[in-house]
C-alpha cells in the first residue's frame, strides 16, 4: 500500500440516523485498502458518504447485513458469485464518464488538428516576417512590405 494511502487520515463521517447499515471508520479503511489492492485506485479519505451510498446498494442486492460481512465475503471470494462481485464493487466505486468526444466542439477541434497534421510541411514552415529588414532605420524605406 502506498504512503499516500496509509498516511491520509480519515475525515470524520457522521452517519445519519436514517442509515440502513452501520458503516464504521474501520469499514471505510478496509474499502480503501481493497479498492487500492484490487484496482490501484486511491480513494480519498473524505469519500465516506459516497462509499456508503454506492456500496449500500451492493449490500442490499447481495443480501449482506453489514459492511463487514460484505467485505469479508469479497476478500474470501471462494464462490463464483463473490469472484464476480469484484467487478460490481469496482464499478460502484468508480465514475464511468462516457461524454468524451460527444459535443460538437470536440469534433471541430479534432478535425482542425487532423487537417493541420495532413498539410504539406512547407505550409507550416512559411511564416510572415514582421518588422523591418536589417539596415533600414525607417519603415518607409524598407525594401519589403511589413
Give a brief description.
The protein is an all-alpha fold and 146 residues long. It has helices spanning 3-7, 25-39, 48-62, 67-76, 80-93, 104-117, 121-125.
What does this structure look like?
There is one protein chain. The protein is mainly alpha-helical and 146 residues long. Helix content is 53%, strand content 0%. The protein contains seven helices and no strands. It has helices at 3-7, 25-39, 48-62, 67-76, 80-93, 104-117, 121-125. Helix 2 runs parallel beside helix 4 (67-76), helix 3 runs antiparallel to helix 5 and helix 4 crosses helix 5. The chain is elongated, with a radius of gyration of 29 Å.
What are the key terms here?
mainly alpha; 53% helix; disordered N terminus
Q: What is the chain-wise order of helices and strands?
A: HHHHHHH
Global shape: elongated
Number of strands: 0
Largest sheet: none
Question: What's the arrangement of secondary structure elements?
Answer:
Blueprint: H1 3-7, H2 25-39, H3 48-62, H4 67-76, H5 80-93, H6 104-117, H7 121-125
Amino acid at each position: 500500500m502506498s504512503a499516500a494511502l496509509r498516511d491520509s487520515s480519515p475525515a470524520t463521517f457522521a452517519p445519519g440516523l436514517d442509515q440502513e447499515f452501520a458503516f464504521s471508520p474501520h469499514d471505510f479503511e478496509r474499502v480503501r485498502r481493497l479498492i487500492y489492492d484490487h484496482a490501484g485506485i486511491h480513494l480519498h479519505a473524505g469519500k465516506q458518504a459516497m462509499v456508503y451510498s454506492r456500496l449500500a446498494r451492493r449490500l442490499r442486492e447481495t443480501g449482506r447485513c453489514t459492511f463487514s460481512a460484505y467485505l469479508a465475503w469479497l476478500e474470501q471470494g471462494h464462490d463464483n458469485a463473490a469472484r464476480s462481485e469484484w467487478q460490481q464493487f469496482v464499478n460502484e466505486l468508480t465514475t464511468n464518464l462516457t461524454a468524451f468526444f460527444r459535443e460538437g466542439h470536440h469534433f471541430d477541434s479534432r478535425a482542425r488538428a487532423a487537417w493541420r497534421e495532413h498539410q504539406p510541411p512547407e505550409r507550416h514552415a512559411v511564416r510572415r516576417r514582421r518588422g523591418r529588414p536589417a539596415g533600414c532605420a525607417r519603415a518607409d524605406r524598407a525594401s519589403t512590405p511589413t
